[in-house]
């Protein structure tokens, strides 16, 4: 079992617990906003991510940093949840837990997440057309595109929805041709 699978297995119950808490207190929208904000902060600061994952840092130090960093930006429910993660020494997995929480919250709202890697940025019209096409493909009520520009794709784009990947990139086509040539040559 890969370490990524282990992290996902550990993250799942925490994400479910946070979602249950948010549903019970009818604050799912606010908690989702908080989690997105936290993910954005973690994405911008490797230093913070490394600090929280460092087992040599004390629980108190981690709590102080969390309160100083996001304490005034998030709800009391989310802050309490983060403190529980620190106490249980799971705060290093915050990014995975946050991703799993958002995935579950979006599923609950019938929102499909599509991760798009593209060689060049899409125009608003292209984004709208792609969103509509993905809605038809997945039969989802809503689709959220998470777009990343990757010039190494050379041209085209890839779409990942859950475990399904659609690769229309030139890099993907070159890989496919190389794979086919390997099979023919042997």
UniProtKB/TrEMBL annotation:
Keywords: ATP synthesis, Hydrogen ion transport, Ion transport, Membrane, Plastid, Transport. GO terms for cellular component: membrane. Pfam families: OSCP (PF00213). The keyword Nuclease does not apply. InterPro entries: ATP_synth_OSCP/delta_N_sf (IPR026015), ATPase_OSCP/d_CS (IPR020781), ATPase_OSCP/dsu (IPR000711). GO terms for molecular function: proton-transporting ATP synthase activity, rotational mechanism. It is found in: Membrane. The keyword Transport applies. SUPFAM superfamilies: N-terminal domain of the delta subunit of the F1F0-ATP synthase. Belongs to the ATPase delta chain family. HAMAP family: ATP_synth_delta_bact. This is ATP synthase CF1 delta subunit. It comes from Pyropia fucicola.
């Amino acid at each position: 079992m890969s370490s990524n699978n282990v992290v996902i297995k550990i993250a799942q119950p925490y994400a479910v617990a946070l979602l249950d808490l948010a549903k019970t207190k009818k604050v799912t929208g606010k908690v989702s906003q908080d989690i997105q904000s936290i993910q954005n902060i973690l994405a911008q600061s490797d230093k913070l991510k490394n600090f929280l994952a460092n087992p040599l840092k004390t629980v108190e130090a981690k709590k102080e940093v969390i309160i100083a960093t996001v304490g005034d930006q998030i709800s009391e429910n989310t802050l309490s949840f983060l403190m529980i993660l620190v106490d249980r020494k799971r705060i290093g997995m915050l990014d995975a837990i946050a991703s799993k929480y958002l995935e579950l919250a979006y599923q609950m709202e019938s929102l499909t997440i599509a991760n798009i890697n593209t060689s060049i940025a899409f125009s608003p019209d292209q984004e709208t057309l792609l969103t509509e096409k993905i809605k038809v493909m997945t039969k989802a009520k809503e689709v959220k595109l998470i777009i990343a520009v990757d010039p190494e794709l050379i041209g085209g784009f890839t779409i990942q929805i859950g475990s399904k990947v659609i690769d229309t990139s030139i890099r993907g086509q070159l890989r496919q041709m190389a794979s086919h040539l390997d099979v023919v040559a042997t």
